[in-house]
Amino acid sequence: MATPTPTGPATAAHPSRLPWAFLAAGLALMLGGIWLGETARILDKATQVCLQCIGIG
Amino acid sequence: MNLRLLVQLVASVVTNANLKGFFTGKIYDGVLKRGCVPTLNCYSCPGALFSCPVGAAQVTLTSGGTAEPAGPVPTLRERLWNVLSGTPWFILGFMTVVGALAGRATCGWLCPFGLLQDLLHRLPTPKWRPPKAMRLLKYLCLVVLVVLMPLFWVDSFGYSEPAYCKYLCPAGTLQGGILLPLLNPDLRGVLGKLFAWKMTVLLLFLAAMVFVARPFCSWACPIGAFLAPFNRASLLRLQVEADRCVKCGACRKVCVAGLDPVTELDSGDCVRCLECARVCPLHLIHAEAPFLPAPTRTRPDGAQPGGAQPGGAQPATVSDTSAPTADSH
Q1: Of B24, B43, B97, B264, which one's alpha carbon is 20 to 30 angstroms from that of B230?
Q2: Which CATH number fits the domain B237-298+317-323, given the four candidates 3.30.70.20, 2.60.40.1220, 3.40.50.1000, 1.50.10.10?
Q3: B133 Cα distance to chain centroid
């Protein structure tokens, strides 16, 4: 029988709480952005053609 | 047709479902553009229904804060409000949520520009694996072109520009820069040196896509750069049972990011396409996440993949890039 050759850390090293913390932080940032009116400003810009962005101007 | 290709096609169509725009040359201006897609998709494309996170982040940075100073000198409160309201919190939060859920899986499964790269790379030509150091360029693009230049490269009138979109983004050229002048004769008259530069960048990337696996994702995509660190800290995790790997090299051949999945499974350049898992003859690569069904395959020794073995020991898995291999395929 071939001897197993571990080449990396075991699954137990998975930082299982970190993704949840990022998820919570991300949701909080999204709500903050909405509260500050960011989505309305995005809409305002994104509904006009950005000529510079597409290489015109 | 495999599942991923189907998902990529559907995502590309849904993202650009304003079909009317392709005939009228006018972009969509409805409420959906308040939100972003988690992929690179120019919102100046006639078909785009949503905003591009890179474009949206830059216009938020370039437009600054929303406070109107009451006097000739802004007060401390007004300055603070300008910093708060001039930072793209919503975009940062949205991309953080995307990364925390699945790392770069949106690059591999949803991005229209990723689909284009995958399709062009299928052309039967010699392939080239560039030096890994070139992958660092995308972080430079994110920091310099997306953040620093829109913030600090200000003209004499106090205005700054969305530098990444203006000087580099080939997706914007392909989706908006070519289509809009074609559909709007008035725009053809104002095409100049900038358009020539952007077309050159686009053509260089298109040519590179034929020979190199996902060159734009690897070298120049700021979304990929932002999501890359999340590959090590997302709910979606990939695992390989390295102790049973027979080093056949099948996974390496199909990797759309040009990686060696056995040793680089959690690399920031992995786009979570799962092609490696699909072709592994021994089914040694698994995707695990709370929102996915638990793996049901059973190893010959009775242990569950990625779980504890009968003796209580953890299986050998690879989850970072530092792990050396016995050979190099």
Answers
A1: B43
A2: 3.30.70.20
A3: 18
Contact criterion met (CB < 8 Å) for B97 and A23: yes
Secondary structure letter of residue A38 according to DSSP: H
The verdict on a CB contact (< 8 Å) between A53 and B263 is: no
Answer yes or no: is pLDDT of A3 > 50.
no
Q: What is the pLDDT of residues A15-43, one digit of tens each?
A: 588 999 999 999 999 999 999 888 888 88
Q: Domain ranges in chain B?
A: 3-66+84-227, 237-298+317-323
Q: Pick from B56, B101, B316: which is nearest to A23 by CB?
A: B101
The answer to whether B90 contacts A42, with C-beta atoms less than 8 Å apart, is yes
Asked whether the ipTM of the predicted complex exceeds the cut of 0.90, the reply is: no
Q: Which residues in chain A have their CB less than 8 angstroms from residue B230's CB?
A: 22
